[in-house]
Amino acid sequence: MAFSHSHHTLSADHAERMTRAFTSLLGLSVGDAFGETFFHRESSVVWAIHERQTLAPPWPWTDDTAMGLSVVAVLDEAQGVDPELLAHRFARRYAMEPWRGYGATAHEILTAIASGVPWRNASAAAFHGEGSMGNGSAMRVGPVGAYFADDLEAAARHARMSAEVTHYHPDAQAGAVAVAVAAAMAWQLGQSFEPNAGLRLIEAALDLTPCGPTHDGLQRACDLPLDSDIETAVQVLGNGSQVICRDTVPLCLWCAARHWDNYEEALWTTVAGLGDRDTTCAIVGSIVAMSTGGDSIPLAWREACEPLPH
Question: N or C: which end of the chain has fewer CB within 10 A?
Fold first, then answer.
């Protein structure tokens, strides 16, 4: 299916695609805010997760959602990812709210873009020219998979473009591809609703994710039984505590595959893995909302979460 990316003519199904992108963004923002509430003393966090005790509202969201908002705005404007447009939106939103929890490298890259450095140069300069392999490329990309949910290859292509604006390293781009393809696949599963289909999320991502450490991690996720406990999964797959894609994305896809039909269970399992919990929950939320629909997000959580700007 051909997509028109001119800024003038809207494809007939653009509104439908945007509805999906917003659903993924909602799943992302609630996951992000939910995960962020579990950053305090480890012993009390472990108890709260075990007892399923959420923190009193409000739950503010972080840079994960802030960047997701820019992604969705660009999808609406360009009917796909336009890297130039995305770079400027990222930089503008960052300048408005730099306190959202951006990492040190994101501060440098977005400040450089805001000051007029071309995004390719800013992105490629990070880490002595290797580029960032941080998980920021993956935390914000679910809506891209949602927008292109009927075309996994388009989801992968646009995910890569969305990543390279800030993440020049090929493995960070691979992480973005994996999450976008999983989100697209989740929507497809939600349409057909086959029982025990969760593994197909990881398999679809594996097919389209470029070779490298994140791809290797996805292979391990594919081989790990979905009924394993979360502690085992963290030992095998990581939990984002290194804040890079290879240590984040495999666990997220495994949690999403395990609970692709239940948003709430998916989030409790993910946060029990500890680590970079706002980001892992944002990623899983952005994927699982695609198979379960926005209404599956607990109302109390949606009400506790900082609302999205219109």
Answer: C
Task: Write down the CATH number for the domain with range 14-304.
Answer: 1.10.4080.10
Cα dist from 211 to 25, 133, 165, 202, whole Å: 27, 14, 20, 14
Question: CA geometry: angle at 70 spanning 275 and 176, to 5°?
Answer: 50
Residue 8's pLDDT band (boundaries 50, 70, 90)? low
What pLDDT, on the 0 to 100 scale, is given for residue 10? 76
Length of the chain: 310
How far apart (Å, rounded) are the C-alpha atoms in residues 64 and 54? 20
Separation CA 69–CA 309 (nearest Å)? 9
Q: What type of residue sits at position 307?
A: P
Report the alpha-carbon distance of residue 120 to residue 52 in Å, rounded.
44
Burial (Cβ within 10 Å: 0-12, 13-18, ≥19) of residue 188:
middle
The CA–CA distances, whole Å, from 108 to 29, 87, 91, 168, 175 equal: 24, 13, 11, 14, 21
Q: SS3 of 80, please? A: coil
275: its two tokens: 């680590």
Domain boundaries of the chain, sorted by first residue: 14-304
pLDDT digits (tens, 9 = 90+) for 161-190: 999 999 999 999 999 999 999 999 999 999
Using a CB cutoff of 8 Å and minimum separation of 24, what contacts does 85-88 make? 86/162, 86/165, 87/113, 87/119, 87/165, 87/166, 88/113
